[in-house]
Amino acid sequence: MTSKKSTPIAVLRYTLGPHDGQEEIFAATVQCSVSWVKKASAGQRFVTPKTAHKVSMATGVSEEWLVSGDPKAPILERDNVTPYTWDSYARWRQETIAPVSSIDPRVVAAFASEITRSLFAAYEAGRVNTAINDLWKFSKAMKSRYGAPNELGISVQFTRDVGREMVELSNIELRNAT
Question: Is residue 47 a contact partner of residue 66, using CB atoms and an 8 Å limit?
């Protein structure tokens, strides 16, 4: 059995903690496949300079440290001097991710559509209760992490836009299925 911190990617994921270090979440953050994350974490894939740049830009970790392949070397920020911590990651994400001024109804509709599809798939597999429990835990984690306003303040038009987008996504799926 290999150490959970046997590669720079594994060390980085460990540093990001149990949420942001999860394979799926880390993969989405760095825009790589879950398969790549698994293989790079296990030492079955090397981190190329191109991938190191992508991971570095998403997390704020040193490209040189990633490419070195040495998990025992001190993990550093992009400046190759400052020690890298979860706080480094949080600060980097806050400073580099463009603030969202409004929520796009298409994004909400796509997300709601994916949740709906997953629930139906769970129902067909006889695991809908487990899926609903997972969704409930996710919802609670989101509330805990970001808080929840007393009132959503969503306009009627926004709600209509989300509904219209969901119908459009469903129509596209139906056309593609036939």
Answer: yes
pTM score: 0.56
- pLDDT band at residue 152, thresholds of 50, 70 and 90? low
> Among 135, 139, 140, which residue's Cα sits nearest to residue 120?
135
Q: Phi and psi at residue 83, in whole multiples of 5°?
A: -60, 140
| DSSP type of residue 18 | H
Give dist(CA 107, CA 166) in Å, integer: 10
Q: What is the pLDDT of residues 108-117, one digit of tens each?
A: 777 788 888 8
Closest by Cα among 94, 90, 68, 89 to 77: 89
Phi, psi of 148 (to 5 degrees): -145, 125
For CATH 1.10.260, the residue range(s) in the chain are 8-96
- The chain-wide mean pLDDT, for the chain, equals 85
Give the pLDDT of residue 100.
58
8-96 has which CATH code? Answer: 1.10.260
| Contact criterion met (CB below 8 Å) for 30 and 54 | yes
Instruction: Give CA–CA dist 51/97, Å, rounded.
Output: 19
77 DSSP assignment: B
